[in-house]
């Protein structure tokens, strides 16, 4: 009979040597000494830095494949938990032992023989390893949830804060927190780039570990970090923190507005060509997307035109120059816009209705709270009468049941009152603002803004026979129907006069 040869397997759970007590190097030294002492022949060594909590470890899988192709193979490891901490990998090893592919397993810290008793003990060891991993994960998550309830910061303090080991939380750095505030104020002026702000921070002592200015990505993360508002983060979700904030909400939002504006501007700069209406229209004949390109006329002047990509097959549609497309869109916007003084009047009416709704809601809430207080007083008096023996128990229980059900009903109404908001006011206000924006855009040269608005209010955007068209929702069609009357009134001698009764009727959404 040939002597059993062994595969040596060493593993640690993390790639960071500082976070693993038993390093791979230490395991190798111990296992080689153990093999020499026990006269075990090692034919190959396998090493990896990978958690065994989940399957699909590459090196472990490679070792399993080699064992499948061999006979009379043994495994030498420090402990069964080095081999598996999950049921899949543990099951593979047990299955290979059953099939006599693995004929021996040796551990300096654990006894094993390929017998029913030995297999049972090996299964127990794998089960304990899995239980340890599962329990550790649960305990870690439980600890995280408790820290979140207390509003603690969970990781290394962001720039401008320091970790307080006593409170296990963070607190503003006496100097650098003021630098962070100053940096946000500087960036809110829109006069800084990421690079110039990094230089500003470096001048005031906030740099990388090597003393270099922060990278652009670090500056961006810092400017978007809600920790400065007193929030703590866990798994991409923000929670209310228990530490002091550094920034005011106004300053933070001002910086976010600058970031948004610069992001839009840089997005447009990154475009090789500026074709504002691409991605909006489809060909009315073959339904392919409309693309754009530059062309040079006989005079040498360059202009943009839009055409079908013709990727869907044969298509006879010709090109449409951009200035003609824009003229058509302006005309279309003209039909769904209302005069500014009309939209202003309508917005004032909406504000009035909103205030009335709010006033009625408050009045209803006060009435319900008064009823609730009355019922609670009755319940308290009823309990007192029962305890004093002034009323029989049956009478007490009957009246108590009635009052409790009444109380629950009032509480449900209070909850509904607090959550219910008029669901028609905001859509109406948004439509009025749309008609107002349409009025502003009908003479606008910002084609990107025009495209965004048309995408918002329209559907089924098509270009066919050099004509652009799209459908608009019913409220906008209503505006189209009445805009002619308003334009006629606006061009007359009383254009600057107060709204007439006819115009007021048109502007009144009750008439829509």
Encode the helix/strand succession as letters.
EHEHEHHEHEEHHHEEHEEEEHHHHHEEHH
Q: Quick one: CATH superfamily of the domain at 5-145?
A: Resolvase, N-terminal catalytic domain
Instruction: Please mark out the parts with pLDDT under 50 across 5 or more consecutive residues, or reply none.
Output: 15-21, 492-497, 499-512
Major sheet size, sense and barrel closure: 4 strands, parallel
Spatial sequence of strands, sheet with the most strands: 2-1-3-4
Give the end-to-end Cα distance, rounded to a whole number of Å: 97 Å
Per DSSP, the total helix count is 16
Secondary structure category: alpha/beta
CATH topology of the domain at 5-145: Rossmann fold
State the helical fraction: 40-55%
Q: Which radius of gyration do the C-alpha atoms yield?
A: 37 Å
Average pLDDT across residues?
A: 79
Strand element count: 14
How much strand content do the residues show?
5-15%
Gross morphology is extended
The CATH level-2 architecture of the domain at 5-145 is identified as: 3-Layer(aba) Sandwich
Q: Under the CATH scheme, which class of the domain at 5-145?
A: Alpha Beta
Summarize the structure.
The chain is α/β, with parallel strands linked by helices and 512 residues long. 53% of the residues lie in helices and 14% in strands.
Provide structural commentary:
This protein has 512 residues and is an alpha/beta fold. Among the domains are: 5-145, Resolvase, N-terminal catalytic domain (Rossmann fold, 3-Layer(aba) Sandwich); 161-270, Hect, E3 ligase catalytic domain fold, CATH 3.90.1750.20. Helices cover 53% and strands 14% of the residues. It has 16 helices and 14 strands. The strands form 5 sheets. The protein has a 4-stranded parallel sheet, with helices on both faces. Strands 9-13-14 form a 3-stranded mixed sheet. Strands 10-11-12 form a 3-stranded antiparallel sheet. β1, α1 and β2 (41-49) form a beta-alpha-beta unit. The protein is extended, with a radius of gyration of 37 Å. The N and C termini lie far apart (97 Å). The model is unreliable at 15-21, 492-497 and 499-512 (pLDDT under 50).
